[in-house]
Design brief:
Strand content: 35-45%
CATH class of the largest domain: Mainly Beta
Number of helices: 5
Distance between the termini: 48 Å
Number of strands: 25
Helix content: under 10%
Order of helices and strands: HEHHEEEEEEEEEEEEEEEEEEHEEEEEEH
CATH topology of the largest domain: Immunoglobulin-like
Largest sheet: 20 strands, mixed
Number of domains: 2
Structural class: mainly beta
Oligomer: single chain
């Protein structure tokens, strides 16, 4: 990944002056746009350590990213400036201050596939790559890639904050064999009623064939079966709003059999002993068998009229009296919609042993979570069912293969987004007395 990005960036191996940068970007920008950049950068002497030209605002006009360091600065400080072509003006929309470890060239920029990427070295063998995109006045984080060393393994993570897809991967340093990989969706869970601003995604969607766990032969396209998952929480409950696009809904099976009807499963992994993927430091110590704090919920839809949705719960733990009492407050409601059906599920935190949402300060809390939909189009042929899930390699007995849920405190968002017009709006409101 890092080697690939190196081919994308227009990067100086040694520092250059702004005048040299002006000459390099002259073929792409009119003189007045180059002057916009000069005016936005510090007027004190600077060294330019990298730049990239390309379109990351989606208007087919060139944009710019520049990496600079104040000349004579003894600190290991770099500044990255992001400019977009805004109706003939190169507007500064974002500035990031980044530390380097040994050399200034450890901080670099590149523009590719409609995104602008910033690469930085965190420490020895540890790198991060951030991808951004500018749309309709909003600079949003698209994705983040990390690479680090863990004993004799290279550990890689990827999160896409727009599609909510991601993966965890461990690669052997001796022969580059992939020891473990899990590809999954992450569902952000915000406090109930909170407005999620533009640039952030709240709905995890499984709609591609790679999320079909079983019966791909019988799956035609996204209209046949698609899964959307949203989540929220309050002081007492964790909520799920699951929407299934299904062209043939079978809510009740033959003779009341659940296996001949559409149904859902929700799996929660509340493993609290550290890394939810690994249980030890040896190469193959991954959580590939059922252990503690695994909870499974099976949801029958009912008939959408008189027969209510039903929830069955199972756990790898022995539930205590408080958890048994909390389980009585579990509730599911299923409803028919034009494109398929929805299921709303409420689970008390007390079932998991928490008196309140497990959040500490500004830190996000991450757990394993997977939603599975069993789609029956012909109740007389249940063997032709299609199963879609939020993790591409999900196995119920292997917690390391689960997808993810992230509880987001009110002070945070899952991802990063900046509306460049928000400051101007606040100033105008203050001018008129608000």
């Amino acid at each position: 990944m890092l080697l690939l990005l190196a081919g994308w960036r227009a990067q100086a191996q040694t520092a250059i002056t702004f005048d040299s940068l002006s000459a390099l970007i002259d073929p792409y920008f009119a003189p007045e746009l180059v002057q916009d950049v000069r005016n936005a950068l510090p007027q004190s002497p600077i060294d330019v350590w990298g730049y990239a030209v390309g379109d990351y605002s989606g208007d087919e006009a060139n944009d710019l990213a520049v990496v600079i360091r104040m000349r004579g600065d003894s600190r290991r400080k770099m500044s990255v400036y992001f400019f977009v072509d805004d109706e003939g003006i190169l507007r500064l929309i974002k500035q990031s201050n980044v530390d380097f470890v040994e050399l200034p060239i450890e901080v670099s920029v590149a523009i590719a596939r409609g995104n602008v990427y910033m690469t930085r070295k965190v420490k020895e063998f540890n790198w991060e790559i951030y991808g951004y995109r500018f749309r309709s006045g909003v600079m949003m984080m698209v994705d983040k890639f990390t690479s680090s060393r863990q004993d004799n393994l290279n550990y890689e993570t990827y999160r896409n904050f727009q599609t909510l897809e991601g993966y965890e991967r461990y690669i052997s340093l001796t022969d580059t064999t992939i020891i473990f990989r899990s590809d999954f969706l992450t569902t952000p869970s915000y406090s109930r009623g909170r407005d999620v601003s533009t640039g952030y995604q709240a709905t995890a969607r499984a709609q591609m064939s790679r999320y079909i766990l079983q019966g791909s032969y019988y799956w035609h396209d996204e209209h046949d079966l698609t899964l959307d998952v949203r989540s929220a929480y309050d002081d007492d409950y964790l909520y799920f709003n699951i929407q299934v696009m299904d062209d043939e809904v079978i809510p009740v099976g033959l003779d009341g059999s659940d296996t001949t009807a559409d149904r859902l499963e929700l799996w929660m992994d509340l493993y609290s002993l550290g890394d939810r993927f690994r249980v030890g430091r040896r190469t193959r110590d991954f959580r590939m068998k059922t252990d503690s704090n695994i909870y499974a919920f099976t949801i029958a839809l009912g008939d959408f009229i008189d027969q209510q949705a039903r929830v069955k719960i199972s756990s790898s733990n022995i539930l205590d009296d408080n958890q048994i009492n909390a389980a009585k407050a579990i509730k599911a409601v299923a409803a028919r919609i034009d494109s398929g059906y929805t299921v709303k599920l409420r689970i008390p935190f007390g079932l998991f042993g928490f008196a309140k949402p497990p959040l500490e300060g500004d830190e996000m809390t991450k757990f394993g979570m997977n939603v599975i939909v069993h789609d029956i189009d012909n109740p007389y042929r249940p063997e032709e069912a299609t199963t879609i899930t939020t993790s591409q390699n999900f196995e119920k007995t292997k917690p390391a293969t689960f997808g993810a849920i992230v509880l987001v405190p009110d002070s945070q968002y899952y991802g990063e987004s900046t509306n460049i017009f928000l400051g101007e709006l606040k100033e105008r409101l203050q001018d008129v007395g608000f």
